[in-house]
Amino acid sequence: MRSGTVSVKEYRQQIEAQLQTRRVSAAAEATAAPVDSDPIAIWNQALEHVVDSTLDPAGRRGALQILQAASFLAPQFASLHAEYLDTLRRLATDADSELRRMALDVLSNQKDDFARQKLTEGLSSPEDALVAPAVALGFLARDDHGSAHDIARDLLKQSTDQHVREQAVRVLGAAPAAKSLLDAVMKDKTEFRQVRRASAVALRALDPQMFAKCAQDILEDESDFEDIKATVAGALQRANVTPATPPSAPTKRPAKKGASRRRR
């Protein structure tokens, strides 16, 4: 658990105590139902707390965790679901960065138009970004809407950050027009190893035949890295494709002069 956060159990206890105090003050002790039997009251309280910027951020995150768990209880939570989504959209632009991330995470799973728009705007205009570029791309990668494909292409051309590049190829894994680009990234020996692996996964999903041809080219390239060869050979085997040239035993490769700074 992150330092400074409030667990769901602790937050629930806080809300239950507050609700019980209100009931006592209303002189309803004799007729009040047990707090545990009134989840709607707890969820409504959480909806109030999570958007209250005067409260401690850790408590607000605890409130959001309560709501996230409740959202899986479809029949009971149904009456609050629309308000919950509206609340998440408000939190997506909150001053607290962790609340923004949590809200956009949930909204991205819902393929929410508002979240998609905000994430895309943040990638186009960094000054408007609600989360880091790699995080935004990771969220958009779950959405096959296609709005982020052009941005992912641009970031793959411009960014030297490994995590941004890795997420960019994952986004392009839903873009059939990006097959040639993914093929090139997969073969690029100056590219980050993890980015090459991510591009291999993306290309294999888009076009197994093109992936198999690219993998075979890598296996036949004596200058390529042995760990990359082992990765693509394993992927070919899992795809029930036997490479004509199996990866050779690992050997110590001499260092090359002028190696790209992206090579890892």
TrEMBL record:
Basic residues bias locations: 253-264
SUPFAM superfamilies on file: ARM repeat (SSF48371)
Domain of life, per lineage: Bacteria
Listed InterPro entries: ARM-like, ARM-type_fold
UniProt region (Disordered), positions on chain: 236-264
Protein name (database record): HEAT repeat domain-containing protein
